[in-house]
Structures are given as C-alpha cells and as structure tokens.
Design a protein that fits this description.
- By secondary structure, the chain is α/β, with parallel strands linked by helices.
- The protein folds into 2 domains: 71 residues, no CATH class; 203 residues, Rossmann fold, CATH 3.40.50.150.
- It is built from 11 helices and 9 strands.
- Helix 10 crosses helix 11.
- It is globular and about 65 Å long.
- GO terms for molecular function: peptide chain release factor N(5)-glutamine methyltransferase activity.
Length: 287
Amino acid sequence: MKDAMTQAPANLRHLLSEATACLRTAGVDAPQREARLLAAHAADTDLAGLLRIDTLPPAAHATFMQTLHRRLNHEPMAYITGHTGFWSLDIAVSPATLIPRADTETLVEAVLDHLPDRNAPLRVLDIGTGTGCLLLAVLAEYPQAVGTGTDINPDAARLAARNAARNRLAARAAMLCGNWADGIAGPFDLILSNPPYIPHADLNGLMPEVVRHEPARALDGGADGLVAYRALAAILPDLLAPGGIAVLELGIGQDSSVPAIMRLCGLHVLEIRPDLGGIGRALVVKK
C-alpha cells in the first residue's frame, strides 16, 4: 500500500481506486464506500459533495492518507470522523465510549410505543449512558421530559454532556459520573440501559474494529454475559415509578436468560422487541 500511494495522485478517481484496493486487501467491509467516506471527510463535504470534486488539495490529500492508514488498522470510521448519526441526532464519539449502533434504535422505538404521550413530563434515567445517545434520542422525542445519564467513566460522562449541548438538549439532561445508579434518587418513569453483555470468552472473537478499539469495559458482561443484568434487576424495582418502565438492550441469545433474571426480582416482562435482523434486542419491563 505504501509504495502504491507515496505520491498524491492528481485525479480523485485514481486515489479512490487505490484506496479501495488497499481497504479490500485489509479485509475492511464495503471498501469502496469506506474510501469515499474518508475522502469526503478529508474534503470537509458529504458523499454528494464529493461528486463535484476532481482532485484533493494537498492538505486534504494529507488528511486522507492519514485517515486511510487509521482505517487500514481497522479503527472504526466513527472514531476517525469523530461523530456518527443516531436516531435524529448527530452524536460525537471517542474511544471512551462504544459507538452507537442502529440496533440500539430499537429501544427508542419501544419507548415510543409503550409511552405514546409525547407531551408527558417524564423523568428518565439512562444507566451506563456512554455517548448519551439513548437518553438524548428520548428527550428529543418528549419535549417535556427531563433526564439523567450516568457512566462510570468520567470521559464518557463528559462526552455525553457535550452531546447534550451539541443537540441543544443540555437544559433537560444531566450527565453524571457514577457506578450504576449509586446516589441517584428515583422514582423514574423510564429507565434505559445498554449494559455490557458480551461473555468474556467471546470478546476476542469480535470484529477487529471492536476488539482493538472500542472500550472493553463497555463490552465485557462477565463469564456468562449477564453480570450487568443481575445488577440492574436488583435496583430497578426501587427506581421505577408506579406505571414506569425500563427498556434494556439485549445481546444475541439473551432473550430468555435476561427476562428470567428480571422476573426473579419481581419485574414483569411487557415485550421483547426484535431489531431489523430479527434478534430480540429491546426488553421492556415494569414492576
């Protein structure tokens, strides 16, 4: 790769062709699209704007080469660009947090169906908020709601606060550093959580983008992947308001084990909602 691209090609089409070949060789999925996304980022435009560009200026070409090397090392695109889309929001990301996934939007869909009054003055708690994407997506849909996000990682809590400001929701969102809901007083009408749920032995089998770059602490669910759910089940009954619900993200194959844990702590399962791939993704429970 290095020998093939040591000089800046004058033609963007040639640059994209060479980059696509390098990404394909490195085993990056959708290499042509990835090359175009990197070029658009370097040129400070979008994919549509890239169609109007024939060459990259020297500074943009240097940025493209730097980011291409990062992507060839399987660094996620969102970490390279510094942001990603989630629901209707633009979410800043960093290596302190997991990158928001489209599958997690299933939780927002479940909330909207179970709490149909968009003007309800909900009190919301997001445990393990990460980027804040879940809490902020819900607050964007419920203009009278207020929410608190907690994360054990102070860098994540700070990023979530920046995302609240970035999406003009800071007045209704408090982002705190803390362990689970320690020191948090309920009750809450809605509790959200996308906890760590990957069994420890499975971590090294994840995609290199995940295992090399995303924070293991936010992925590792212990020996059976269920440690976080046991902790959540123990505190949810005391935190939920009468009639309130909790919506939790599930991992693959956890749509039987996690509901059983919740029932043991006196919680009633309302729904297990599948994502677009048919995987049970959003667990909805109440007292």
